[in-house]
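Reading a protein record of the kind used here takes little practice once its layout is understood. An example of such a record is reproduced below.
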Amino acid sequence: MFNKLKQFKDLRSQAKTLQNALAKESVSVEKNGVKITMNGNMEITALGIENDMDKAKLAGVMKDAMNDIIRKTQKVMAEKMRQMGGIPGLS
């Protein structure tokens, strides 16, 4: 039983280390006047929109930019996890 608790504690520690490493990663996308920056924890850290952006166009551009940044951030997260050896027991 104590062995299982130690394994859980080790796993939790590895997950926290990975989360901290991912928070330091940064990905940016610029698309048609919209710029979004996101960290590896999937938090938007910066958002810029051109002042003269047409509101009707803005929704579509934002949707496309958000989808792009999420895909790119997921790739960075997967690569970082691979570099750090992943999380044992989840493979």
Summary: The first helix runs from residue 2 to 23.
